[in-house]
């Protein structure tokens, strides 16, 4: 995959995230609430990933799992918190406000993780990166417009 197709795929995935939150919120309204909807989202996702992984004909050695550090298993918990929170929040905030807040959090978190070299090569925060983060904040504020009351 080249850089252009990788970027296009990332943008497409980004476009699907608010739709996922809206779909999960609708499922929650029509069934047993947002946590049930998040659970079903993960259940369906688990099935899809299991089929995809099996179709890729993977090699599997159970002994390799014992060598994995404990924190490597926390990604699923983080994903569950995101999906459940998005399912709860999207009806209250709207898709655009939710995603803007999430993107802002991702930018701040990414800057900090890069700066301290958490799990990858260190990339210190510099003034240009701070300006970029501030532009994201400004863009999010223009989309969300918290100074205006809902009509």
UniProtKB/TrEMBL annotation:
<feature type="transmembrane region" description="Helical">
    <location>
        <begin position="68"/>
        <end position="89"/>
    </location>
</feature>
<keyword id="KW-1133">Transmembrane helix</keyword>
<dbReference type="InterPro" id="IPR006750">
    <property type="entry name" value="YdcZ"/>
</dbReference>
<keyword id="KW-0472">Membrane</keyword>
<dbReference type="Pfam" id="PF04657">
    <property type="entry name" value="DMT_YdcZ"/>
</dbReference>
<feature type="transmembrane region" description="Helical">
    <location>
        <begin position="35"/>
        <end position="56"/>
    </location>
</feature>
<feature type="transmembrane region" description="Helical">
    <location>
        <begin position="95"/>
        <end position="116"/>
    </location>
</feature>
<keyword id="KW-0812">Transmembrane</keyword>
<protein>
    <submittedName>
        <fullName>Transporter family-2 protein</fullName>
    </submittedName>
</protein>
<feature type="transmembrane region" description="Helical">
    <location>
        <begin position="128"/>
        <end position="147"/>
    </location>
</feature>
């Amino acid at each position: 995959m080249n850089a252009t197709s990788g970027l296009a795929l990332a943008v497409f995935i980004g476009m699907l995230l608010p739709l996922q939150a809206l779909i999960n919120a609708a499922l929650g309204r029509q069934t047993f609430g947002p946590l049930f909807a998040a659970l079903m989202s993960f259940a369906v996702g688990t099935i899809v990933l299991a089929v995809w992984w099996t179709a890729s004909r993977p090699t599997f050695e159970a002994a390799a799992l014992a060598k994995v550090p404990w924190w490597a298993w926390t990604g699923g918990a983080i994903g569950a918190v995101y999906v459940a929170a998005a399912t709860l929040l999207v009806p209250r905030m709207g898709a655009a406000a939710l995603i803007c807040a999430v993107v802002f959090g991702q930018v701040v978190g990414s800057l900090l993780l890069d700066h301290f070299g958490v799990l990858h090569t260190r990339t210190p925060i510099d003034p240009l990166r701070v300006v970029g983060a501030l532009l994201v904040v400004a863009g999010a504020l223009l989309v969300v417009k918290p100074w205006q009351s809902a009509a």
